[in-house]
């Protein structure tokens, strides 16, 4: 337990469903005292649900939340907060749309919590003024909250929370409604405030740059699960899977093969790398950040070459798309511009190659056998290669590239929605969510948009069915 | 003048014919004697007419009582209807609003008949019952509307800052629903003052309301005094609106 000292919140195996939809799946996480933790993920990943459970607005279905607690006799203990209503929890929230009380002025909004605690009037006065100064809103105490700008309301909302000296401050996308410049200023101020106050911050955002800028620890979430927990540098440099790599910063995610320890093949070339322990000739995902590819018309030690397709000025750097000699497209950032149409030479340092275990190499889908050449999956009937074995429950194996997506839902055996798109240099790796709610992964050269409704067609010979070993008679 | 302003003309004519003109006529009749000469005697007569004054006092008393009872019954009803945890069906809301769609006279006659059947003595009690029955939906609906539209994060923020459920209600929900409450009060109090049909049917005219004496005067061709009484009532309605902070933007409860 030595690494788990100084914990203020410990979340164990938390799950939550709304109706049939499971929003959080077995979340375990601990938060250290004084830490700035960010829950990061796309909308619908469950990050806000998790925050609301910590605040006490939602109760978990399974698992528990342990919290440091000051009991009446002055001792500090660690207790399960299940069933404890929000008003008794030692934390305060900054809400997404601020939720400042419109019938109270700035002063009374901030004093709201202190008045409820029965803090003496002159102490309320000192504390409110002190916190107003901290958020640089000293002259605004008599103002009507609705007359304030978004940024000012934001400051009041933060002041209203921290004036109560909570053990933990929860922030639910607090900067989402502000414009870019204001957001950047507030990020710096929040970071300073965190250092000055020493309160633990739990911050929810979908903005990856915000998460990297502010946090001590980033928790990347997707589809109700924690994908990776780490420092911003770890998350950026060593993403554990293609989702994290794609979500954090810009990246080239490519199919590769680990030939042996410290040697990986991708885009048709062998590269030295620093990764070990994957085994030999194992398919892997390779992540190359756009700034890590070195470019030159004549480059000493060049490993491969390609042709510049486009070059766009982005302020500090140029962003180029280069087609390599093997036909993969790489996104590359460089301080120098390279002319479109020209041939360039490229080089990637071993340190800059991030190798990740493939989460999957083919689709494996639970299905029911109807007869020797027919199965039911995604709630629909599919013809398959002859099974040649008895049994009812089985698994269908389908290669990513053998799934055909149709423009019209009725053209396929089943239908679904394009859920997530990953560009892999020379093809797209799509996640299609079927109508039955299962995921089907598809490799394709066609361009689809997120949210497209598609028909799913798979040729019978491309469906290999394997009868489950443990059959009930 | 742009051409577009011409489009307002029909509404303008309507307004003049059916709102401004009747109001002017009320003022003109109220300030005339039987022969068409100018006089203030109709107005001053009210202040010396003890019969009219006591009826007026009774009317205000009944209206205040009715409004209070409607508020006490209506607020919890609206609160329950607007709470998605307590009320999951839109049908319940319709059931509460439904009486508003039936002619008030019919409802009152039916109520009177029920009292007769069950042998209740008609009087103050039956009058108030009928009034509350008639006007309750007008109290519930604006409050329900305000509560329904209220951002849930306000009460969550209050709870987050340490307020118990009762404190959340007293310090946040109730103050924020004031526009609905004042709208409801306006819609119940003012019509109650001028009503006469309910008192006629539910008390057999034992209790006379201000509306009743206006109606009696007009019916017996005493147009000038009737108009003066109407004018006095209009002034009272106007004053109530101003007193309740009747800023139109704040009275957002509305009706159906």
Structural write-up:
The complex is a heterodimer of chains A (about 475) and B (about 260). With about 475 residues, chain A is of the alpha+beta class. Helices cover about 20% and strands about 40% of the residues of chain A. The longest helix of chain A is centred in the middle third of the chain and has 18 residues. The two termini of chain A are about 45 Å apart. The mean pLDDT of chain A is about 90. Chain B is about 75% helix and about 0% strand. The C terminus of chain B is likely disordered. Chains A and B meet through strand 6 and helix 2 of A and helix 7 and helix 8 of B.
Question: What attributes characterize this protein structure?
Answer:
heterodimer; A: 473 residues; alpha+beta; 6-stranded mixed β-sheet; 5-stranded antiparallel β-sheet; globular; B: 256 residues; mainly alpha; 12 helices; disordered C terminus
User: Radius of gyration of chain A in whole Å, from Cα?
Assistant: 27 Å
Low-pLDDT parts of chain B are 247-256
Termini separation of chain B comes to 35 Å
Helix percentage of chain B: over 70%
Strand content of chain A: 35-45%
What is the residue-mean pLDDT of chain A, rounded to a whole number?
90
β-strand amount of chain B: under 5%
Using the alpha-carbon principal axes, give the shape of chain A: globular
Judged by helices, strands and strand pairing, the structural class of chain B is: mainly alpha
Total beta strands of chain B = 0
The portion of residues assigned to helices of chain A is 10-25%
Largest sheet of chain B: none
Give the assembly state of these chains.
heterodimer
Dominant shape of chain B? globular
- SSE ordering of chain B: HHHHHHHHHHHH
Distance between the termini of chain A: 46 Å
- Lateral arrangement of strands in the main beta sheet of chain A: 6-7-8-3-9-10
- Give a quick account of the main beta sheet of chain A: strands, pairing sense, barrel closure: 6 strands, mixed
Q: Mean pLDDT of chain B, nearest integer?
A: 85
Radius of gyration of chain B: 22 Å
């Amino acid at each position: 337990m030595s690494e788990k000292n100084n914990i203020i919140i410990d979340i164990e195996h938390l799950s939550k469903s709304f109706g049939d939809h499971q929003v959080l799946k077995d979340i375990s996480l601990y938060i250290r005292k004084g830490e700035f933790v960010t829950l990061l993920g796309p909308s619908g990943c469950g990050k806000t649900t998790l925050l609301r459970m910590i605040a006490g607005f939602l109760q978990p279905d399974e698992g528990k939340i342990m919290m440091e607690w000051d009991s009446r006799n002055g001792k500090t203990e660690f207790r399960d907060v299940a069933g404890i209503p929000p008003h008794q929890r030692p934390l305060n929230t900054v809400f997404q749309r601020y939720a400042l009380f419109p019938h109270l002025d700035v002063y009374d909004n901030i004093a709201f919590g202190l008045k409820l605690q029965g803090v003496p009037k002159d102490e309320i006065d000192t504390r409110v003024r002190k916190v107003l100064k901290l958020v640089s809103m000293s002259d605004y105490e008599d103002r009507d909250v609705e007359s304030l700008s978004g940024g000012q309301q934001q400051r009041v909302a933060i002041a209203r929370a921290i004036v109560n000296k909570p053990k933990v401050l929860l922030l639910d996308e607090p900067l989402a409604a502000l414009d870019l410049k204001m957001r950047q200023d507030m990020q710096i101020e929040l970071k300073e405030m965190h250092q000055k106050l020493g309160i633990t911050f739990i911050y929810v955002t979908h903005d990856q740059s915000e998460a990297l800028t502010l946090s001590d620890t980033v928790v990347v979430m997707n589809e109700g699960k924690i994908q990776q927990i780490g420092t911003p540098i770890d998350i950026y440099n060593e993403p554990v899977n293609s989702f994290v790599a794609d979500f954090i910063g810009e990246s080239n995610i490519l199919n590769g093969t680990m030939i042996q320890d410290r040697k990986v093949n991708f885009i048709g070339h062998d590269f030295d790398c620093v990764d070990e322990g994957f085994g030999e000739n194992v398919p892997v995902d390779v992540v190359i950040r756009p700034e890590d590819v070195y470019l030159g018309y004549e480059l000493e030690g060049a490993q491969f070459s390609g042709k510049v397709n486009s070059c766009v000025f982005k302020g500090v750097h140029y962003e180029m798309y280069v087609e390599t000699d093997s036909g993969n497209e790489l996104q590359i950032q460089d301080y120098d511009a390279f002319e479109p149409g020209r041939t360039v030479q490229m080089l990637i340092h071993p340190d800059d190659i991030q190798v990740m275990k493939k989460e999957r190499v083919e689709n494996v889908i639970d299905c029911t056998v109807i007869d020797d050449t027919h199965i039911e999956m995604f709630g629909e009937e599919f013809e398959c290669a002859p099974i040649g074995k008895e049994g009812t429950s089985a698994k269908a194996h389908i290669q990513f590239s053998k799934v055909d997506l149709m423009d019209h839902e009725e053209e396929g055996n089943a239908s679904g929605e394009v859920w997530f798109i990953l560009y892999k240099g020379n093809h797209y790796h799509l996640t299609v969510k079927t109508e039955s709610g299962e995921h089907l992964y598809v490799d394709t050269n066609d361009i689809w948009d997120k949210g497209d409704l598609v028909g799913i067609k798979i040729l019978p010979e491309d469906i290999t069915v394997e009868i489950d070993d443990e059959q009930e008679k | 003048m742009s051409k577009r302003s011409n489009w307002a003309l029909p509404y303008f004519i309507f307004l003049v014919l059916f709102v401004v003109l009747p109001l002017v006529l009320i003022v003109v009749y109220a300030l005339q004697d039987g022969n068409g000469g100018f006089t203030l005697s109709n107005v001053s007569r009210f202040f010396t007419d003890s019969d009219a004054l006591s009826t007026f006092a009774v009317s205000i008393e009944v209206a205040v009582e009715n409004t209070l009872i409607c508020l006490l019954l209506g607020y919890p009803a609206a609160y329950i209807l607007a709470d998605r945890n307590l009320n999951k069906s839109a049908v319940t809301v319709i059931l509460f609003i439904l009486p508003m769609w039936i002619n008030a006279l019919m409802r009152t006659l039916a109520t009177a008949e029920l009292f007769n059947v069950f042998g209740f003595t008609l009087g103050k009690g039956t009058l108030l019952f009928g009034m509350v029955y008639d006007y309750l939906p007008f109290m519930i609906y604006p409050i329900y509307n305000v509560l329904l539209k209220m951002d849930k994060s306000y009460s969550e923020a209050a709870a987050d800052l340490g307020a118990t459920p009762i404190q959340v209600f007293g310090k946040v929900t109730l103050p924020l629903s004031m526009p609905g409450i004042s709208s409801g009060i306006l819609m119940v109090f003012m019509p109650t003052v001028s009503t006469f049909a309910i008192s006629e049917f539910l008390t057999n005219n034992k209790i006379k309301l201000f509306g009743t004496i206006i109606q009696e005067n007009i019916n017996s061709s005493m147009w000038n005094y009737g108009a003066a009484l109407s004018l006095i009532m209009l002034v009272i309605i106007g004053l109530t609106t101003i007193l309740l902070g009747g800023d139109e933007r704040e009275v957002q409860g509305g009706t159906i």
